[in-house]
What we know:
Blueprint (H helix, E strand, L loop, with lengths): L24 H24 L2 H12 L30 H24 L11 E5 L3 E7 L16 H14 L6 E6 L14 H18 L7 E6 L18 E7 L5
Parallel strand pairs: 3-4
Antiparallel strand pairs: 1-2, 2-5, 3-5
Helix pairs in contact: 4-5
Amino acid sequence: MSEGNDEPIIINKGKKCEEGHHGGAWKVAYADFVTAMMALFIVLWILSSSEEIKEAVAGYFKDPFGYTTGGGRSVIEGFGSGMKAPSKTELSEEELRELEQDKLRKLGKQIYNQMTDNAEFEGMLDQMSFEIVDEGLRIEIAEKDGIAFFNIGSADLKEEITRLLRQVGAELGKLSNKIAIEGHTDARPFPGSRAGYTNFELSCDRANAARRVLEISGVAASQISEIRGYAAYRLRNKSNPLDVVNRRISIIVKYSENL
């Protein structure tokens, strides 16, 4: 410092920062490693599990709510108390209805695909229709030119529709849903001289004939909630009341009663 100069001398002492022995990068790497190992163990467990467990796991990821159309067990049943499906009370009525509608659509598609794969139903698939209605899923089987299900004025089922109804009944019997069966005729007056016997009686008798086949095929008698005979009052082809497509059987798979 020179004489008469009061300016202080400033000495900067930098602090050397040494990197610690343990950084944070290893934690991220370790977490990735543990996650990968857990995924590996899950895959190995699934591969070594039974087919039932594999189907249940697959079903859980397809339908996490475990909601079933019928009375079968939930797809996540048996996985321990730590994996409980949400209660149906946690879903709104509209959400429950949409879930079951989706189930019923899949049911209709499944039945249709099974018949597509079966050569004995070739030429009859265009006589079937599947539709979601206010009550549930309507499966309708209508006659067409050249293929009749009943003789004129008769409720005796022909072999073609009997085989078809057996296929449908085998699938519906797996459910707990209630079922209604409807009979429809065209507008031709009932032939013959049986007093008091009209197309109303005929349509009911045809619906009952279908019911008997469904029950033989696996549908429980307790599932059948209604038999309806509409005669010619719910025509499919209203512009032609005599059209053969008006002669048909309708099977309604109803929504679950707890909706």
